[in-house]
Design the sequence.
């Protein structure tokens, strides 16, 4: 998503990212996951403040094409788990 410059591709990458992020947050916090409208309901049940940040970040992208809030949100979610993993990452290489 970060390096993508094709708006059509960005939209679909972002859709997939929203699903993955919401599922990751809910599963890592031992919450029920959902689909469609139940994603947002499950997130609200877990943490209303986080849900507001989540919605704002993705809404900002869809309205204005700005990725920064999504990037910051995802980075903050991944930070306790070691942060971003990049292509070629491997544990235990000698």
Sequence:
């Amino acid at each position: 998503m970060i390096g993508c410059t094709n708006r059509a591709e960005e939209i679909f990458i972002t859709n997939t990212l929203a699903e993955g992020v919401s599922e990751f947050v809910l599963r890592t916090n031992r919450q029920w996951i959902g689909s469609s409208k139940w994603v947002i309901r499950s997130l609200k049940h877990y943490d209303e403040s986080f849900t507001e940040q989540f919605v704002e970040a993705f809404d900002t992208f869809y309205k204005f094409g700005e990725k920064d809030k999504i990037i910051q949100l995802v980075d903050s979610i991944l930070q306790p788990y070691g942060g971003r993993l990049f292509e070629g990452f491997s544990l235990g290489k000698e």
